[in-house]
Amino acid sequence: MTRRIKLVVPEEVVVKILARLSLTSITRFISVCKEWKSIINSDYFRDQYESLNTSSSVSWSIMSTRNQTFALEIVGHHGCQRWGLKSSLGSYMHYKSDTPLRKTCVLSCTDGIVLLYTETIEGAPMYHVGNPLLQQWVQIPLPPHLTVFDVVRLQENMFFSDTGLVTKMEKGIVVGYKVVWMLVSWVVSTKLTFMIYSSETGVWKTENVRCNRSMIWSRLKYSVPLNGILHWLSSIGSDIDANYIVSYDFYNGVDDVCRTIPFPDFQEYQQARCFKRTITTSAGFVVYCNIFSDNGGRTIMVWRLISTDDHPKAWQLSWKLNPICKFDADYFPVVMHPLNYEIIYLWSRNKNALMSLNLRTYMYSLRKKLSPEEKVKKSMDGCIMRFSGCKEYMDLIYPIFANAIYGGVHDLYFSQYVLPRWLNPLPHRAS
Fold this sequence. Notes:
Largest sheet: 4 strands, antiparallel
Number of domains: 2
Protein name: F-box domain-containing protein
CATH architecture of the largest domain: 7 Propeller
Strand order of the largest sheet: 23-2-1-24
InterPro entries: At3g26010-like, Beta-prop_At3g26010-like, F-box-like_dom_sf, F-box_dom
Domain F-box: 3-52
Order of helices and strands: HHHHEEEEEEHEEEEEEEEEEEEEEEEEHE
């Protein structure tokens, strides 16, 4: 009779082995046994992993929102060591439904969590919050006082937005989230109504808030989340372009008043601005960047939001690069690098390429969409950058960004999806 020998691996050895793997591999070991799951979920193991992977990059993507004409993922940055993904993040942006779907849209992304909108063949709307990488999805029920028909009617209202998603973080892990719908009564108003679904309670609630000044609400369709706060573009006076940001803190708000912050170039650079205003996030800040005419040349300026006070000093001018015309190309700003505040991405209309520009060193590189026969080259951080319909997408939004074409409103056209630096399972929804 053969005796079976049970091999006991010391916990210290298990920690050292697992800490050298990618997060994708580590997620598979969670299901091996309870002991390994307990080790991986411990603060000690996380600290060990971080100490060995302090400099490794993470994957991120620029996602198209609502637009069904172009690919879901405009720019994909993947293959980084920390997660070890072989495919771009856009390939994970799907929900396996038992019901046939005619539409899938990314509404918002924050802290590795995604708000996904889908429609059935019959046109019934559905909202899901999930972690695409782990394929964990939860359907968000519609507000109990609204029928499916009511929701469809709201979506047709230009003063309604269903794109809000904010998270509650503890030690770098999402422990809760809120889905936020926003409604105003008219194009000019001081009052806003929020319909808020919380994962911690599992129910919807309605909140009425106000602004200290009348705002023009023509840009509600998209919001920018950061640290539990939503930011919208708005304006005052007769300026067609956005000249204010409206923000509200859904986890630490102490009153029923929204914050209103003027853009830093509202007065000083008003006539020199080349493109309509938009905002993005980078390295933990809301960021505004634009290009300005300057004595026949063009200057790129980047501010980051450091306060929610109603004053231009709420912004800090971080970069001023003059001139950029030496690059011999027609560029317009697209997005800041979500993790590296020194890097901005601009689209070159005459070269049909995305330019990565380091604002500190002035070094730049041009990247074009590759044909199937061309070999993919890795970036300086060892990751792969891919494009899908990028030229067509940029050609579409350029006239809307351009200051010369002042008709029509300006919306945010993309959402940044950045993988977290640690395992981020979807918080359990309250039953």
